[in-house]
Amino acid sequence: MNEGQIQLVETDFTDLENVEKPEMVYKYRSWGKGEPNSDNVLLKNELYLAPPSGFLDEFDCKIPVRYDLLSDEEVLKWGEPIVRRVHSRWNDEAIKREVKYLSANLPFKDPIKMKAFEEEEWKSYDQKAGVLSLCTNPLNADMWQMYGDNNQGICYGYEPNSLIRSCRFGGGGSVIYGKELPIIHPFMSPTLMGSIRVYCKLDKWRFEEEYRIREFNESLVNRSNRVRAYSDDILKEVTLGSKFSNESIPDIINILKQKGSLAILYKCKLINGSLIRIEIKY
Questions:
Q1: Percent of the chain residues past pLDDT 90, beyond the cut
Q2: pTM (2 decimals)?
Q3: Are strands 154-158 and 25-29 parallel, antiparallel or unpaired?
Q4: Residue 240 belongs to domain spanning
Q5: Which domain of life is it from (predicted)?
Q6: Which of 33, 74, 82, 92 is 20 to 30 A (C-alpha) from 208?
Q7: Beta-strand (E) ranges in 40-118?
Q8: How many structural domains are present in the chain?
């Protein structure tokens, strides 16, 4: 996957109706296993913005900036705007002198120093990045297996615009899958760099049919700020897995009734190797 193949649109959600999004997005979770980030989706209307370090994909959000690709001349070109921002009152001669000094001491060509630099940069990024991974298909057998507790869990459905407004999310988009991960060049804009990191994954994960909502700010260093709550009316669908305990269905119905929820309740059923949804009236 090269830069020309990447079709990313920066979205800040300030004009939701004109932003292309799926009609519905879904979150697969377990139920009744004592996992707060799973149970609280229904119990407390909470969604958790996960740090990238918790992802199954070892390359997810870990695409490095390839400073090693810079020539000596490009290092000077890359560094000058940074020095000018830091020393806004310096004249051109002082700026150029400082750029040359700093460029000569950068670790870009030293593999050992670069490894340490990338590890520190990743640690900082992981602390400040939050990702809500969603799916566009409530009948994805692989997702039920991996994230829906082997079909014993619940899949929650939301209309994106309402969800985004209710949780005050900032940006999002569909994941782009490819045979290889793209290169992030230092001359790319910070917006493009961040988007490539979050929205580009290898083909082996294409089955996830993923739509992501992302946040990046200092506040996420505090874990409590990673939890976003939505109002009762935002949940549109609740789909129980094909192996969800029938004895627990009344509990789910009771929770929905107490919320005054209008969400449609379904239960999956496996017929001839394919999943279908059957509505449960309540």
A1: 68
A2: 0.87
A3: antiparallel
A4: 3-57+132-279
A5: Bacteria
A6: 33
A7: 46-48
A8: 2
